[in-house]
Amino acid sequence: MQATALQALDFIPHGICIIDENYHIVFWNKQLSTWSQQQPNNVLKKNIMEMFPRLLQTQYRLRIDQVLDHGPPALFSTQLHHHLFDFACPDGSMQPHQVTITCIETEDKKTQALFTIQDMSQHVRQISTYQRLLADYEGGVQQRHGLKKQNAQLIAAIDQAAEAFIITRCTGEVEYVNAAFSEQTGWLASEVCQSMMYFKYQASGNLATAKDVQQILMDGLTWQGRRELFRQDGSTFTASISIAPILNEQGKVTHAVAIQEDIGEQIKLEEQYRKTQKQEALATLIGGIAHDFNNLLSGMLGHLYLAHRELEGLPKTAERIQKVQGVANEAAAIVQQLMTFARKDAVEKRQFPLDSFLKEFIKLAEHNIPKNIHLSIDFPHGSFPCQGDAERLQQTLMNIIQNAVDATRKSEKPAIRLQLQTFEAKQQQHWVERYPILKQGNYAQITIWDNGCGIAEDKIERIFDPFFTTKQLGSGLGLSVVVGNIKHNNGFIDVESNQDGTSFHIWLPLNSQAQKTNHGLDITPTQRSATILLVDDEEMVRETCTEILEVLGYQTLQAKDGIQAVDIVQQHGKKIDLILMDMVMPRMNGLTAAKNIRVLYPHLPIIFATAYDQTLSIKDTRDFTHSILIPKPFHPDILQENIEAFLSLSLHDD
Question: Lesser CB count within 10 Å: N end or C end of the chain?
Fold first, then answer.
């Protein structure tokens, strides 16, 4: 955050504190200095958890960690979370406050958490004032002239409040509602006062019944909680309600005041947080399953490759083995697609042929499209080279396909069509008028059409808005994520819809340069025998891969973990031409082992292999020179290409 922005934070009436990813305080504004009697130079770089131990509780620390991980804002209210910070009011009581924690990003792309601490003392005192003044309502006839101005001001303040205020008799009849009540429910004051019972607004199936509400009012009890309330049009919304009794001079309960707040947006944030938690758990589960599957597939494909080489005079058997290889490769592709959906970090943009990408995508999409829906594709010849994030594009297309499936559920002959073509500006002027940049470059156009129910005119302009959904159980986040993914790929997205169906149009810029292969390495087959150190904790993978390497003409050494690999390099380092290293192993992982080996032999080529999601390792291996990261399972021919590419560079330190 820039210095001028930080200076501005010093003059706002709320307490502002910023911490880094290690919970160290990096900013402490003047308001916090006043409340805590701690100057900035005394608190900067201190751990906020140590200064305020209540934050160490699991419920708070998890929310703070989620915010630091680019999660949604965290809100801690006065009623539910009490005093997170031990600040005292002028009268010596503990300050009630509301805390909002938001993720911010520094200029060097580091995440920080911004605490906004709002003093709620005045709000609490105001409620107390409302109760005291309203208690005099019934007996104030004799003092009406003296209190007229004060009452008018009070009513004006209540009427302008964002929360709904309802005054009822102890038997439940509504006597007063403010403007916020009408905004929340749709009922005017003239429609409810003296003619409706407050507990009649309660929807069924809540924490307490309408009878419970009536009993609370009659007994003069204080109550706080959430309720589902009816609007005038029959719809419902969730409200946070506080009910308190109003007493006359004799201490008798005459009325009750209810403060009612629509907390729909807060609930959406809570649901979004819970959804994020589920997605993180799913990512962990899929990552572990994918690792085991990929190792099994590595052994299977290795044995199939060896068996295929050994078959002579059995063409039918060779053909069957080749088909099994194809099935195993498809299984590996499915595991890779599952990891894509569980992925949290974006991979680096790369160049890929869009037509081939879409053909592979169709194989995945077919698993999610019911058999009764006719799926057709329309792809012209050509590679359509595209530069971008293929994983995000895949997530985007799958989201649109799923929406198309939902839209066609009631169609007599449901159909979905996926089309790829080069965008022709002259033939589609209406899109050029809307997106003038389309006529300045070379774009591919992807169209996904369905013959479903279509999108209503009053909703089509909002479908890409966050939290907007037409589905009963939808989150409203899907299409807003789609827009973000397309923008990440420097593209555009738009939609057309009528009673005959819906078409989503996606435009992606094409790259005129040819795509590089083999990770940018020029392969020149080497004629010399090479010794390869194979490092993997899975015995089946080591055995299969060793046999493949020996069939390909290489000599091999084996290590079952990083510690053993370092020991072997120390003993036989000058004989080793290349290392094939698994990333995840017990005792010492591949990255740590590689760092130790590079101290001894700085130029020794290393091929890293991982059965987990590549995005979890790509950042760690990016700065490693003379190395490459490949996913498991890998085809022996691809492995040989990479080995020969490194050996041809003669980078080994003799």
Answer: C
The string over 273-308, giving b where at least 16 C-beta atoms fall within 10 Å of a residue's C-beta and e elsewhere, is beebeeeeeebeebbeebbebbbbbbbbbbbbbeee
Domain identity same for 69 and 129: no
Indicate whether 85 and 148 sit together in one domain.
Answer: no
Q: What span, in angstroms and rounded, lies between the C-alpha atoms of 566 and 588?
A: 10
3-class secondary structure for 245-276?
Answer: EEECCCCCEEEEEEEEEECHHHHHHHHHHHHH
Question: Cα–Cα distances in Å, from 446 out to 340, 395, 495?
Answer: 21, 14, 12
Q: Mean pLDDT, to the nearest integer, of 588-602? A: 90
pLDDT in tens, 424-455: 877 888 888 888 878 777 888 899 999 988 88
* Whether residue 645 sits in one domain with residue 542: yes
Rounded to whole angstroms, the Cα distance separating 154 from 140 reads 14
Q: Are residues 250 and 135 in the same domain?
A: yes
In the block, tokens 């330190």 appear at: 653
pLDDT, tens digit, for every residue of 138-171? 665 556 665 677 777 777 777 777 788 888 887 7
What CATH number has the domain bearing residue 64? 3.30.450.20
Q: Is residue 557 part of a domain?
A: yes
DSSP structure class, residue 346 = P
Beta bridge partners of 558: 534
Alpha-carbon span 642 to 169, nearest angstrom? 83
Q: How many domains are there within the chain? A: 3
* 47 close to 23: Cβ distance less than 8 angstroms: yes
- Integer Cα distance of 378 and 355 in angstroms: 10
Tell me which residue range forms the domain holding 586: 519-649
Pairing mode of beta strands 578-582, 555-559 = unpaired
Where does a domain end: 119, 135, 167? 119
How many residues in total does the chain contain? 654
* 379 belongs to a structural domain: no
Q: How far apart are CA 195 and CA 191, in angstroms?
A: 7
- Rank 136-150, 189-203, 520-534 by mean pLDDT and report only the highest: 189-203
Is 636 inside any structural domain?
yes
At residue 222, what are phi and psi to the nearest 5 degrees?
A: -95, 135
Q: Are 14 and 31 contacting, i.e. CB atoms less than 8 angstroms apart?
A: yes
Closest CA to 402 of 451, 365, 432, 363: 365
Nearest to 217 by CA among 235, 232, 203, 197: 197
Whole-number Å distance between alpha carbons of 633 and 642: 14
